[in-house]
Structures are given as C-alpha cells and as structure tokens.
Amino acid sequence: MSKRALISVTDKSGVVEFARELNNLGYEVISTGNTFKTLKENGINAITIDEVTKFPEMLDGRVKTLNPYIHGGILYKRDNKNHVDTVDEYKIESIDLVVVNLYDFEGTLKAGKSHEEMIENIDIGGPSMIRSAAKNYKDVTVIVDVNDYNMIIEKLKNDDLTLEDRKRLSYKAFSTTARYDALISAYFAGEVGDDYPEIFNLTFQKEQTLRYGENPHQKGVLYSQPNAKNPILNYEQLNGKELSFNNLNDLHGCLEVMREFKDNSDVVSVAIKHTNPCGVGLGKDAYDAYTKCYEADKVSIFGGIVGITGAVDVETAKKLNEIFLEIVVAYDYTEEALDILKQKKNLRVLKLANIEDSLQPYDMKYLDGKLLVQDKNNLLVEKYETVSKIEPSKEQLEDMEFGMKVVKNMKSNAIAIVKKGQTLALGCGQTSRIWALKNALENNKDKDFTGATLASDAFFPFDDCVTLANEYGIVSVVQPGGSMNDKDSVKACDKYKMTMVFTGTRHFKH
C-alpha cells in the first residue's frame, strides 16, 4: 500500500514542487479546497478530501477535515493490534504525512480587519490535524513550516527520516498551534476589554540569536511579539557590528527618553549609559542639541549611545566622531554625514522611524517563574501645583517639564538638575534620595548651578535635599509631593526664597 500525504496550506510557497517530489516518491496526495486546485493546475496527482471522508465539504468550508477517515488515519498506532484492527474494520487508510499551515489570523489582525473577518480566519480543522499528527509523531510526519520542505524530501529520498526528526517536527507543530491560539486569546481579551486576564497568553518569535547576554558567560536571544503595535525598536542599521544584548537594552532606554520629546519643536539629543540618561540637551538643530548633550557629561558619554530626534549633518557627524560611541541613532543622515560616521567601521549607525506614542499596554518584569505586569507609565504629571510662596517663572516651568521627562526615565532614587533645556547633573539608582542629589552635585563640581531646577522622581522625606540644593544655587524644585513631611520641604523653600511645584505623579523605576 502506498503512503499518503495530506496537504492543506494557506501559504502555498513551494507546495507544488514539494507535492511533485512526494508523487515521485510514491505518495498519494490528499488535498483540500484551493490547495487541491493549485496542485491540479500544476499537474500534481492528487485527490480531494471528500473522496476520503465520503462526505462533502460544508458550511463554506468550515467542516471538511473533522472526520474519522482523516483523524483515524492520522492517529492510529501502527504497532497497536487493536488500533490496526479498528481501522481495518472501518476501512480507514493511513495518513503518513500531514502538511498544514493555518489561516492567516495574524495577517488579518495586523491588517485591522473587521471582527467578522477575524472570526472567519480562525482555523479549526488545521490545528486539529496538526495536533493529531504531532501527537502520533512516532508514526506520522507533521510539517508546518515551508522552510522544512527541502529537508523532508532529502530525508525521504535517502530513507533516513528518523524518530528524532519527527519528534522535532512535532515540537515545532505544537509551538505553532500554541502561538496561534495565544494570538486569538489576546485578540479576544481586547474584544471583551479584559486588560488583566485570568490566563495571560503572550507569544514571541525568535528574531535573533545574540553573541551573548548581559555578560559573556550568559546566552542571549532577541524575541519579537507579533501583535505589538508601534514597537519602539524600529530602525534600519546603516553601519557597524551586530547589536548586542546590552546595546539593545540601552537603545530601548535611549528611545524611551527620546519619545518623551517627540512632540517638541526643538531637537533633543540623549546620551545613555547602562540604560540611564547621562546627558540630555534641547537645541534648534542636531548640532546644537548634541553639543548640549555632550557638554552635560563629557565623561559618562564615552562608550555610550547617542540618540537625536532630527537629521545628522556633516558638522554633527564630525563632532560625534570625536569620541568613542557604541551607537548613534537618529531620524536621518545626510549622505556626507553618513560617510563620516562610516569611517568608524564598528560604530552602529541606526536610522529610526519617527517615534510614535507607545501602544503596548504593559510593562513587565520576569521574576524567576513569576511575572509582574503593570500599565505602561505614559503619564508625565497630573498637574503643576505651586506650593511655595514664590511662583515659578515661565522659563522655570519649562525646565521643570524638561527635568520631569528626564527623571521619569532614570533608575530610582533619581534626581535631575537642569537649566535652559540641558541636564547639568544626574543622580540615579541610589538607596537614599539625598545620596542621589549628592552624587549629582559632587560629580559635577565644575558646573554652575546658579538658577537651575531640580527634578525628583519621588517625594522628599525630609528637607535635606532642599537645603543642599540651595547651597549650590538651585532656585526651583519640582517633585510629586505626598510625603508626611511635605510641609518641611515647602517651609525650607520659602526660607531660601526658592519655588517648589508638586506634580502629583511619582515616577519610580526599579
């Protein structure tokens, strides 16, 4: 008895050539609907599914393969006498190879089709056949990936398709149906408005195997979420080495800060080191913005990442090339500027699609078997409320907003000291807020802080930060407020003739 292959595919790439090879190897091909039509038009010897099921396709194709003549032929154990006797009794013939890829639910989702079209692109028979074949992998070969066609044919020709091969194909098959169902689950969660479902289904596709992880002894891989909207890591690499695990993590931090300023008429330049900003500058053009960014911290920027929300020209490229940088990311580059940056063959030069608002609903932290999930921190401030006797000037309010956009993206405890659209000193990741301020000030003793603004990611538990800020000439403070001791900080501001504004919005980032 010849072996039989069931082929039912949405993606018809290479299927004609694959089926022809199966014919040549003596396989009888069973097929469905448009797949059958494609095969017959190209001279493939095939029979329709209803010749096997003895029942016509019905309900607009919704029911065609859900039949004992199909699933019995796939699922019976060839080495189990009871199974063999049963299929013989009911004249069910074996199906030895199942080739299925599914209705394009993902493509329909990305195209933003109507709910009715989404429903019609949920495959029922396909996953059932895949799962049946994958379950019975000891006797049946299941293929869900067009990229496996050539490998399968070569192994069949050489009669060396092993049990281990079929197990690996089974693993790929179950991964495929799991991913498919996760996409459907996530879609329905959105349809019914279940933001934090009882069962939280996510699926990711491997995009890149990295050289290593955070450290050389750790493995690293980049995965992508297929249903992500407006992903921020959306760039074209124009020069340099492959991005590493740390590069990608730092790049994400850079783009998050750049996103805060996406609606500014000025250009912003951001320097990042170990995911934290080390310099941020607003300017009339890329050169002006980068100059402010560089001068904000000439030490920490070395070996960091620089982002610019504008086009890099020749003069900016020359200045960027004066120091060692891992990555430069910008909206565009003149041809001459790109030639200059390419003089450093290892410098990763990225052209970024314009940054849009984040449409990802979640911020997540994986904790060794547990997953913490929260809303994205998309709110900058609730309101600006002056709590001191002295009102802030228009310029001070502008610096307060600038400072909050920066400090929001720093690891807590975090302090940003800014003036006229430039960071002067940044202190982050400290276990005490006064230490964060001291680090910022003491590491930048060459700076003139007279008239500067201090932004804090969370409230002041004591008045010590205000007192120290006053000693350095800082005249305005913006912070969330909310401490039991708020009155002490406000009283200190009034004593030193400083202005203080509460925002009502904390920005812890751990």
Structural classification: alpha/beta
Number of domains: 3
Taking the alpha carbons of the first and last residues, their distance comes to 65 Å
Radius of gyration in whole Å, from Cα? 31 Å
Low-confidence stretches: none
Q: Trace the largest sheet across and list its strands.
A: 8-13-12-11-9-10
CATH fold field value of the largest domain: Rossmann fold
Count up the helices: 18
Residue-averaged pLDDT: 93
- CATH uppermost class of the largest domain: Alpha Beta
Q: What would you call the shape?
A: elongated
Strand content: 15-25%
Architecture of the largest domain in CATH?
A: 3-Layer(aba) Sandwich
Number of strands: 21
Helix share bin: 25-40%
Give the biggest beta sheet.
6 strands, mixed
* Fourth CATH level, the homologous superfamily of the largest domain: Methylglyoxal synthase-like domain
What does this protein look like?
With 510 residues, the protein is of the alpha/beta class. It folds into 3 domains: 4-192, 3-Layer(aba) Sandwich (Rossmann fold), CATH 3.40.50; 231-352, Cytidine Deaminase, domain 2, CATH 3.40.140; 382-502, Cytidine Deaminase, domain 2, CATH 3.40.140. 36% of the residues lie in helices and 21% in strands. The chain is built from 18 helices and 21 strands. Strands 8-13-12-11-9-10 form a 6-stranded mixed beta sheet, with helices on both faces. A 6-stranded mixed beta sheet has the order 16-21-20-19-17-18, with helices on both faces. Helix 8 (125-135) runs antiparallel to helix 10 and helix 13 runs parallel beside helix 14. It is elongated, with a radius of gyration of 31 Å.
